Inverse folding.
């Protein structure tokens, strides 16, 4: 038998293959002989020394060794920071000019690193640049929503191996976010509490799905994880807007993000993954009902007709087993 | 510049890469030397002669040559047709036993066929079996929604090459469907018309995005197609429930479905695709606001962090160009 579980935050039903679930290690990426990556690639636009290959730089974080993280315009942007967002209405059709921001955040001068293997301070620098660009772009009146995301590996949609993330700032609020806000409001009106805060309390009480925790953050597999090793990292403090993160919290988030990604790296052999920072629309700042967070999705399975046709998911891993497996993964001292 | 378009039916915003759009033929699957498939494979559980390899058969459509289409239980079901759907509530967590149906529809006795290359009558037989199983399962009081879908090719999530579709009948209404119903109701209340009927009228008037049309169906690329060559096939007659399809309409749907799939096969070199039949929850039968239809998604691109983090899509093909390209694809006389 299987079990359907309702994800209270996304409202998606997930079919969890309880009895037939695969063992966690079966989701590891197959080992392949690969040529080690060089620390510098002469043709890579993101490598230190090749700064001229990139588009306009919007921000640079330096230390005494030179730049550590750079934000640059995307060479093939989906959105352009020029002009006004002009709306057109024709019958039931609605369109809007593609105004917005689409930037690349180059995470490190070196070509061959990945967050799982970086120093904590390097990871903190990446998050600092996320916050910096988020805070700057947020005040552009044309922008409604900012999405920070990372595609790691070909199976997660990237073709460039140099470590990088992206930021997309859209002139509309995506429908998916609208719906989640509505559901969070409904829960708040019903109970007087934030559903994200409730989830943290419940997960910390049961401990079954916790992967790691720190002073300011909790990383866990959701009760109704949409796919194997789907992970959420929630700030303990109730805060709706990502750029509200403090310096202290950035240091702490760097630690837990690196820990979770290193556990995936060592436990599942460097799987492809996406992560995304989910935050409130830019026009809002503080709400009682919404909580920013990081969603991390290892790409161990492929959405097929059932998922596309229903919006439901089939998860062949048991969330409690996945969490227990990741808790036990040890990160080498030099890792 | 790009353009954001709102899909009025799904309510998703899509970023259409208008200027930088790829040419339609760039989405073709790369040509590879492949060994032709045999018409019979001794190890294939779906081949004629190997009927004993499958699980319980729920339906068989015969003619004087033997069976033409079989519906069988899935060997690795996500849902099981036994017992009651028991609900559990614990704090904010909700679960339900995995009661339902998960069947495979073996589309043809031969191993090496695909709908694009079948006789019209063979395609009609497949749709007859869809309707048959839909109609039978719909009356099971434990079932709330039936999803019929097909995964064609590895990139669309199938590992078995013998032509087959699937049916999943769930004990809940997926949230995605709930939301679409709500939006369809809102449009109906606002205008007194079905948004699907409105869309057909608009598409037939503009003709820009039409791929093919027949007496009872219209195939077109949506104005805000979520991905390249994303196609909808709508019945012209307003009808909410798939099993309301008539015998005449089945013959006509077989023709247009084969036409569209053959245009993809010849125009884009047999791309991987999913299709799904979207129908009303089983408890309802006739509504003024909802219209069943087929959604077809060629898997030419991969959803990455932006899509996962926003629910929005970036479509690098211009819907009008994709439709124009497919209209022009000629199907060989023996194809």
């Amino acid at each position: 038998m299987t079990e359907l579980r309702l994800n209270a935050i996304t409202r998606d039903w997930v079919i969890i293959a309880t009895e037939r679930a695969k063992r966690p290690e079966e989701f590891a990426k197959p080992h392949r002989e690969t040529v080690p990556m060089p620390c510098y690639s002469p043709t890579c636009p993101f490598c230190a020394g090749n700064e001229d290959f990139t588009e306009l730089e919007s921000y640079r974080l330096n230390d005494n060794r030179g730049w550590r993280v750079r934000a640059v315009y995307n060479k093939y942007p989906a959105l352009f920071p020029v002009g006004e967002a002009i709306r057109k209405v024709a019958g039931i059709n609605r369109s809007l000019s593609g105004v917005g921001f689409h930037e690349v955040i180059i995470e490190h001068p070196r070509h061959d690193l990945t967050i799982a293997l970086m120093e904590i301070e390097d990871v903190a620098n990446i998050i600092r640049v996320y916050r910096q660009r988020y805070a700057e772009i947020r005040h552009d009146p044309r922008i409604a929503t900012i999405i920070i995301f990372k595609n790691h590996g070909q199976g997660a949609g990237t073709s460039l191996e140099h470590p990088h993330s992206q930021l997309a700032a859209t002139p509309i609020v995506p429908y998916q976010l609208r719906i989640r806000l509505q559901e969070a409001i409904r829960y708040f009106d019903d109970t007087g509490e934030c559903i994200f805060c409730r989830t943290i309390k419940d997960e910390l009480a049961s401990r079954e799905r916790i992967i790691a925790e720190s002073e300011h953050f909790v990383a866990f597999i959701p009760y109704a994880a949409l796919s194997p090793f789907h992970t959420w990292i929630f700030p303990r403090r109730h805060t709706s807007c990502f750029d509200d993160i403090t310096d202290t919290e950035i240091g702490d988030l760097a630690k837990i993000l690196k820990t979770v990604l290193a556990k995936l790296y060592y436990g599942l052999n460097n799987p492809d993954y996406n992560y995304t920072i989910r935050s409130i629309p830019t026009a809002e700042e503080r709400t009682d009902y919404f909580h920013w967070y990081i969603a991390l999705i290892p790409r161990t399975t492929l959405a097929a007709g059932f998922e596309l046709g229903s919006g439901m998911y089939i998860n062949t891993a048991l969330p409690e087993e996945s969490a227990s497996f990741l808790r036990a993964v040890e990160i080498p001292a030099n890792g």
Remarks:
- DSSP finds six helices and 15 strands in chain B.
- Chain B touches chain A through 74 residues (CB under 8 Å).
- The two ends of chain B are 40 Å apart (CA to CA).
- Residues 275 and 296 of chain B are 4 Å apart (CA to CA).
